[in-house]
Amino acid sequence: MAHTNRSVLVVGLGRFGSSIATTLDEQGQDVLAVDISGEMVNRWSPYFPTAQADMTDVIALEQLGVSDFGTAVVAIGDSIEASVITAGNLLDAGINDLWAKSVSKEHARILQRIGVRHIINAEMDAGKRVGHLVSGNYLDYIELEGVHSVVKIHTPAHVAGYSIGDVKVLDRYGVTVVGLKAPGRDFEYGSKDLVMHRNDELVIMGTQDQIDRFIRG
Ligand code: ADP
User: Fold this and answer.
1) Among 120, 145, 167, where does a domain finish?
2) Which GO terms fall under biological process for this protein (predicted)?
């Protein structure tokens, strides 16, 4: 099958790359996953299209026709050198929609400097998320790109019994209440007349500072 601008190239078939390739394939996306290791390629080739190649090698890239792909993900974490060289090669091949996994702040900084648009700090992001959950401040937490997060919390004591409009949540705290779930009831979307009760779970969105101020009151 010819690859197109909608095809995705995944480089590296460790835990991270293989789960990305699996998800893309399950969603019906055209995907090709490449690994330098024959063992990894054999392991995954029953599930989605694979190829064995060293992606730091420009000739191997040409042979795979990587410039036909619209998107690529560099999922190499075992060698920062291989990750950075591969990312550079893919940028040189004209792939602008490039994603790369970083294993440290320094790695992320180099990837950013060479022009990788999307950098995924998988372990650091997961650690941050778990930290928030373990601390018990948030019931759930998703960090959006940039500084915004969507967080699930119990209604802060200082707003319990008041409506979103009474509290002027957005004006006063810069926080949007997406909605709330009262025990035993369906989720309700945020509106100015919606009253936040003590045991409700609120889903709110804002920057970390705004969210923390809203929780503290
Ligand atoms: P994870 O931490 O997600 O399990 P790893 O970082 O351990 O993943 O795996 C990285 C994968 O990238 C390995 O399977 C390795 O063989 C592959 N890899 C490393 N260097 C290259 C390269 N130059 N070209 C292609 N694949 C590579």
Assistant:
1) 120
2) potassium ion transport
